[in-house]
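Slide 14.
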Amino acid sequence: MPLYQAIILALVQAVTEFLPVSSTAHLTLFPWFFGWQDPGLAFDVALHAGTLVAVLLYFFKDWLTLILCGVGIKYPANATSEAVTQHRKLFWYMVVGTIPGGILGALFEHKIEENFRTPVVISLSMIFVGLIMWYADAQSRRTRPLEQSNIGDALTIGSAQALALCPGVSRSGITITAGLFRGFTREAATRFSFLLSTPLIAGAVLSHLPKLLKLHKAGGMDLPLSTLLISILVSGVGGYIVIAFFLRYLQTHTLKLFVVYRVLFGIIILVWWFLQRGMQ
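Slide 15: predicted structure.
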């Protein structure tokens, strides 16, 4: 893969991992649209490693507070007992919310990758989830801050996150939608979504690292190490910028732009697929 293709796909990953438009759909379809070669497992791991670094850096203080309070350590030192209790609960809500996606990912990830990464499935998922997102954004009370989250929120949003295994659904899209249905504000739903995504992104990267290291040792790496490192850097920097932008954007805007994009993109995929079939 040429370096310019790697940089373009890294930027695509950075933007679509955190915006509610499905990174899997875009990374699957970009090479398909332009006739590029499949970059392979190593490149996929590199891109996810970059976005993992982005979300860890952006929410570093949040995760530090949640983890320390979650294991019974008062942090920061001047925090009130109420704040520590809230942080401890939120930490365990994140643990509970990660379980559905972790179980379904372990059981069905490979089957889904083999059977569902098709233009038709992706296009229908893009359109369907986009319409649900529109309904949730329009009908939700949007009054609850993140501090009012509970175990029901964790189970609901965590179960929704598991659906993101299907290409085109979008992890951020489906979890933000679930958060809106639970009455969260747009910013709170998005923050919950990003925090909840961190363990699963980390798990995905770590689960593929042994294969990647084994491949590298055997000399079977398709991409130069320099290309992988540049891809991680571009994906990480871009992802950090997108997180900051999106959280600020939702303070004053609706999700309408992303709903319209999902529906139009889904229609374009279907039309392109039909045209391709007609030319065969």
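Speaker note: The two ends are 26 Å apart (CA to CA).
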